[in-house]
Amino acid sequence: MHSLGKPRPLVACALALLPLAALGLTTPANAATTITVASDGSGSYTTIQAAIAAAPSGAIINIKPGTYRGQVSIPSGKSGLTLRGMTGTATDVVITGNAPASTAGTSGSATVLNMAKNTTVNGVTIANTYDRHDSQALALYAGGDRQVYRNVRLLGYQDTFLSWGGTGSSQVRQYVYKSYIEGAVDFIYGNGALVVDSTTIRSLDRGSANNGYITAAATSSSNRYGILITRSTLVSSAAPRTVALGRCWHAGGAADAIGQVLVRESTLGAHIRQAGAWQDMGGFSWKTCRFSEYNNTGAGAGAGAGTGDRPLMSSATAANYTAQKYLAGSDGWNPVQ
After folding, report:
1. Per 3-state DSSP, what percentage of the chain is helix, strand, and coil (rounded to 5)?
2. What is the DSSP letter of 125?
3. What is the fold, at CATH topology level, of the domain defined by 67-321?
């Protein structure tokens, strides 16, 4: 005769019928999905794109060391994804391509095309190795709102990093922190509200009296904030006074693309021009845009700063041009560290 065991207390039976959430517990289903990518086959997928295709919104994609070739596209429907290099060393995980816009189009040339909201990318290198002078060739096209890039390396030549929210006053926001951005021509550009914070920005040496332009902002006149470079270091092996801080990009000839750029509390190397630090573009004078500096140091922040050629922002105005202000929008977003 088999024993039926002791009867369960009524309280225990009642608790067993309650959902875990009512007891303050979490189910595995409530945790973020984690996916591992490894080019050597030791993960769930061998390509980042395959992992993105399989991932639900909000998933974490861990990427093992390796070189991953070809475009990575994060569509707008994949919000909240995190792409994370597993070692925390950006040089260990390299996403690379070499497509130029002349054949692939602007978005098609981007090694990473990120159109999703609320994404985070951490601990990777994103490179476009097409380095001829005849075409755009993007490393990163950031087209979604509330994107964060930490400890990333963005490598390109012309148009390395585009922040773009579409035409008109629509604006996306991105925050780049403790990273590295490299290029020669207009390599940080677009119409988004973009903050580049505590980052090394390297201008490549073209071996010319004109060694290029760091920014090309096309901020809509209806938007107060455009590109902010703050607490960063601008470096180059180029000859002294041959690199401009930026030029005025009226995208598509739009008269209302009144670019806004502020370089503040950063260290500027000797490669930065004293005269001509801001340049005209496409027949539009740089004075049609909103360019300024605040409290910079270094050889490139020398005698020219504060003249009509290099406008300085006042302390009173600068109080309203902080990283937090650029990114707050209408929802108070604040990823600033």
Report:
1. 15, 35, 50
2. E
3. Pectate Lyase C-like (2.160.20)
